[in-house]
Amino acid sequence: MGVLILSQEEVQRLLTMEACIEVMASALMATSRGEAVLPLRTMVWKPDKTGLIGLMPAYLGDPASLGLKLVSIFPGNHGTEFDSHQGAVMLFDVRHGSLMAVMDASSITAIRTAAVSGVATRALAREDAGDLAILGSGVEAITHLAAMKEVRKLRRVRVWSRNPESARRFAAGLGPRHGLTIEAMPSARAAVEGADLICTTTAAREPVLEGAWLSPGTHINAVGACFAASRELDTAAVARARLIVDRRESALAEAGDFLIPRAEGAFGDEHIAGELGGVLLGRLEGRRGADEVTLFKSLGIAVEDLAAAQYLYEKAVAAGAGVSVRLGGGKIVPA
Q1: Could you tell me if 175 and 252 lie in one domain?
Q2: Cβ partners under 8 Å of residue 328, min gap 6
Q3: pLDDT digits (tens, 9 = 90+) for 51-106
Q4: For strand 294-297 and strand 219-222, is the pairing parallel, antiparallel, or unpaired?
Q5: Are residues 219 and 290 in the same domain?
Q6: Cα–Cα separations (whole angstroms), residue 92 to 27, 98, 99, 115
Q7: Which end of the chain is flanked by fewer CB atoms within 10 Å, N or C?
Q8: Residue 121 falls within a domain, yes or no?
């Protein structure tokens, strides 16, 4: 039985941001309807805590999909030739359990994470939001710029990075590509003051965004911190915002942006207003007023990778893309 192999370049060609936003919206709604089986991530850390291997399995009912992402996360790779997230997404046949496809995880992760932020921005940000601040200048910053441009008309874009030269390269390279003027800012505060859209895409373990800097009506997509001991937002920023998550169970176990302020006594579990899928289904009110600060805390869940992989598989088969190899699936015949 042939197994489809899709490279990083093929994933990037087949999975457009526009299409991925719709795929992610459908997957999040299916999850909130109870049509997914989604255990928490299993992680194996190196003894020195510089990197880990994560296993993220899932089943999705619509379309029927079964698979997992096996990914390494090495935050120290930021600024090097290596992605911080590397690995493979594997798709299995739901009837016989045969391996159907192996796809590059770095590109899927980068695109689907930003696409989910696009879904959140479309649902939660003000219609007139268009003053964008991006904290971070790596892969996720690049894809988040594309996602924000897809769902809102951008009138101003600012970027900040702990490495000023990286921010300057981001501005110089991405501005012409998107037909935008991007300003590289000297501080995170200078980047976000007056902004009504903020995306935090850093590898920070301590806050880079303070609540005191936020303007009324701002929407924030917080995506960089994905462990219980790490956060990008300070307590004040989370406390003043209406908090929406990708999945409540995951946030209660892994979201340092929420867990650390909760441990400080700033609020309880009730501060999580609900899941983004619930907003999309109309079961939960998203933004409740023009001046409300909304916060989408994204951890990245396996159904997002699975839905992207299912979409990619169908696109690749139709286009004749990828390479097919034999990796088993049938009965073993003794020699």
Answers
A1: yes
A2: 1, 99
A3: 999 999 999 998 899 999 999 988 788 778 888 889 999 999 999 999 999 999 99
A4: parallel
A5: yes
A6: 17, 5, 4, 23
A7: C
A8: no
In the chain, how many domains are there? 2
Are 175 and 91 within one domain? no
pTM here is 0.94
* Tens-place pLDDT, residues 167-194: 999 999 999 999 999 999 999 999 999 9
In a domain, 331, yes or no: no
- The set of residues, in sequence order, having a beta carbon less than 8 Å from that of 299 and lying 6+ positions away, is 226, 245, 246, 247, 250, 251, 254, 255
Range of the domain at 134: 127-297
- In angstroms, rounded to a whole number, what is the distance separating the alpha carbons of residues 237 and 253? 20
What is the C-alpha to C-alpha distance for residues 83 and 71, in angstroms, rounded to an integer? 11
And the tokens for 21?
A: 């936003």
Maximum Cα interatomic distance, the chain, rounded to a whole number of Å:
72
